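Sample 3 of the quickstart, ligand S-adenosylmethionine:
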Amino acid sequence: MERLSTESDSLFKTNIEKVGRLFPNVITEAKDENGKLIKSIDFELLKQELSGQIVSEDCDRYQLTWPGKKEAILLTNTPTSKALKAVKEESANWDSTGNLYIEGDNLDVLKILQKSYIDKVKCIYIDPPYNTGKAFIYKDDFSMGANRYLEKTGQNSSSDNEFDGRFHSNWLTMMYSRLKLARNLLQDDGVIFVSIDNNELYNLQIMMNEIFGESNYVETFIWTKTSTPPSLSIKSRKTAEYVLCYEKKLSGMKYYGTKLENCDAPLLNAGNPVRVLSFPRGTIRFTFLKDGCFSAGRYNRVELLNDFEVKDGINVEEVFLKGEFKWTKDFMLKEIQKGTYFIVKSSKFSIRFQRPNNEENFKPPTNLLDVELNKNSGVGTNENAVKELEFLGMGRCFDYPKPLSLIKKILNMVIKDDKEAIVLDFFSGSATTAHAVMELNASDEGRRKYIMVQKPKTIPKDSKAYEAGYSDICQIGKERILRAAKKIKEDTGTNIDYGFKVFKLD
Ligand SMILES: C[S@@+](CC[C@H](N)C(=O)[O-])C[C@H]1O[C@@H](n2cnc3c(N)ncnc32)[C@H](O)[C@@H]1O
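Result:
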């Protein structure tokens, strides 16, 4: 009976996992008959996922909820009646380009993209409104039960003010549907990065745990956003923002951080278990000794188990060493097969390893993205971002652009070696992401494509952007891409895809 119950138990767990693969958001925690917490299904949510109408009320469970959540699910699953219209005259290199600049509300656009881009996008970067209370008005077109939806989410005809903008529920409703649709577009090994500040960081993480699955959480990168933190608060001077990172299905992919140029590293690490490793002939280079002999015995932190000879700076026999090595035998074998070799720099025999140059010769990124720690890749601040637009002759035309270096750093983490990757940014703003993709392509003649989505938004008449001749944010995004493309072409002379096709929601 015991065994039988374990088996049915695991079958039940497998079924829950299967449902979770289709709808990660319905996985929750509940108590079993013994009061133990177990993974369970939120049947209410599952019903909602499978229903074309609002389904009825909840019971107690661990979950993030807010007024409007069910409507948000329904809204996600309701098809859009809109379509995309090609606008050739505003595009660049229409016939040859694979890049897209789409003007429209991203909710509709993400729904339309489901047809052609499902499972195709390698990397999504978004920088949504942070719900600071300044610029946040969402009136999603919720045709079924619109009144209830608007009423529940606090949206009505006069909801254009700052107070309404600060409701967490509105923001969550807006983000929930978009993130759910975005997840479908990711390839299985796709990755999403979301910029956020402390206003909604905690809500965003719980919501993304639900949509992407907690087990697919990768990191909360901390970005040093300014070198001159303001003294607006008497409690702290804010210097950081965050970038949440999730994979669609957590994989073994190593993220690119810093290149290790000809840099060897110690093979010994105090505290590791003592192991014996064998070093085949020719795998150890002695930089301090051309020809000579070593006798078995203790050498500082290692024990040499056999005598051997060095000729032309290399071991001519197999060498056996005992010590607190970082690597196991199996791992060491794989490394040797990849061409990794070892270096001994003094008679103390402190053995080090060196990976071959063309191999994975890099470290993953630290979770702190700033100028200091990332000297080689130089992750800049908001101040740099403003200068970058100035450099393109578009100074002060867009509030709060992200620095190019931040987005390049993020994209590089996952698409450095994927020259065909599709990158999506559905809160495009000044199109920094498109600029970053072009720069990455120019650095290695890649064919990565971008999809930018930006809602048309009239520019206020009393702004610098209006003075500079822009009447809509989309004009700024497209102009930035054109200017960045021209500059990259002049600077590098590379023949990459500098164009984009413009589509507008019809
Ligand atoms: C914080 S900005 C992004 C800035 C961008 N990362 C950059 O470097 O320029 C957010 C952008 O998303 C746009 N946006 C907000 N809601 C949107 C929606 N529903 N659909 C499409 N774009 C939207 C805003 O107009 C704004 O341009």
